[in-house]
Task: inverse folding
């Protein structure tokens, strides 16, 4: 029997299958507030065992991309409440990804056009933000040079995550995912190249991990560790993240710290499928031996490779991203051997209304159209 379609106990939350919809930035919230189309988009995909939303900035400071739905105002909270209700009404389960991009931002997105913040005042080489350009038009802009967070400000950012987590639970989410992956703020602290600090958040592995672990602990103290997931991307190379001495040791130390805490899950992002590099051979198995809790991975899986990873015991849940864009009924398509559509890249980011967002048909709808 296929393991991909068997139930799974996620820290007390029963998932009907082991298919996870990975978080995907869609840049569809024109006002920064989830709307009726957002609710429909997630509800259409509610047959996944678990939905993880696109990154939701925990503050204006944490935003690096136009038209992303935040989770730091009452209006945004109310919008997300409509999303969770729509998903739950269809029997789904949904976590929100809490996001602070750090230096991968632009002054046009920041409060008062201030510099973005990071571990150090070091710009990410090749980092781009979806922001307002000099001509006043939206587009890809080189990320602005950041300023280093003062020591006492780090606690403020942690508080932003806690406040967002509280909003998430009030809005009806089943849990939250702390985004520590893909070159964003927590990874900027973890990476010894982008972190040149000399305070308690810089230097040693213990110090560089401190911000992430303090935030996990603070969020879990508020909403429960069983409702707190964490996403990381060991050996990440996006947006100027570079190799550094002691890299494997750093990530295994993170694994040890997470093993002690036992969050709802750890979500590994292998960046090969999104323009980065794969994790070194052998490292995933080392990580699995160190962290023994629920492990999700995303990174270009097919049904076949996902099944094999479950069979090998390497992973507990398999996250699919792009296939969910053009296949709202991806689980049913895989389970029944129905054709899987390939989305056009034009549909990945931006746009308004239903086109390229909520107008992708299910297989049943496709067959009905064919038979008309």
Result:
């Amino acid at each position: 029997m296929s393991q991909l379609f068997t139930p799974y106990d996620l820290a007390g939350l029963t998932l009907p299958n082991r298919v996870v919809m990975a978080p995907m930035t869609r840049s569809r919230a024109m006002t920064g507030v989830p709307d009726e189309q957002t609710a429909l988009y997630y509800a259409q995909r509610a047959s996944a065992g678990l939905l993880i939303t696109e990154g939701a900035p925990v503050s204006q400071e944490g935003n690096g991309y136009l038209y992303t739905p935040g989770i730091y105002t009452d209006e945004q909270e109310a919008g997300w409440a409509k999303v969770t209700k729509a998903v739950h009404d269809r029997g789904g389960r949904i976590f929100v990804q809490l996001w602070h991009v750090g230096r991968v931002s632009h002054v046009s997105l920041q409060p008062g056009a201030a510099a973005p913040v990071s571990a150090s005042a070091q710009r990410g080489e090749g980092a781009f933000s979806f922001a307002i350009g000099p001509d006043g038009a939206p587009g890809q802009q080189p990320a602005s040079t950041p300023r280093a967070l003062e020591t006492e400000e780090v606690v403020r950012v942690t508080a932003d995550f806690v406040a967002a987590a509280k909003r998430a639970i009030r809005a009806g989410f089943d849990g939250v995912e702390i985004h520590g992956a893909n070159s964003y703020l927590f990874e900027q602290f973890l990476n010894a190249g982008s972190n040149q600090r000399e305070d308690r958040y810089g230097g040693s592995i213990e110090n560089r991990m401190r911000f992430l672990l303090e935030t996990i602990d603070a969020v879990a103290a508020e909403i429960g560790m069983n409702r707190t997931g964490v996403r990381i991307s060991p050996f990440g190379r996006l947006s100027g993240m570079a190799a550094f001495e002691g890299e494997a040791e750093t990530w295994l130390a993170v694994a040890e710290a997470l093993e002690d805490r036992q969050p709802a899950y750890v979500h590994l992002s292998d960046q090969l499928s999104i323009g980065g590099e794969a994790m070194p051979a052998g490292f995933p198995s080392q990580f699995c031996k160190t962290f023994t809790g629920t492990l999700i991975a995303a990174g270009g899986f097919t049904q076949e490779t996902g099944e094999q990873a479950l069979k090998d015991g390497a992973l507990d849940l398999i996250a699919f991203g792009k296939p969910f864009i053009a296949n709202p009924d991806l689980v049913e398509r895989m389970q029944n051997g129905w054709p899987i559509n390939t989305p056009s890249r034009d549909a990945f980011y931006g746009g308004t209304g239903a086109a390229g967002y909520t107008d992708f048909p299910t297989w049943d709808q496709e067959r009905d159209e064919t038979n008309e």
Remarks:
- The CA atoms of residues 95 and 174 lie 6 Å apart.
- The chain has a mean pLDDT of 94.
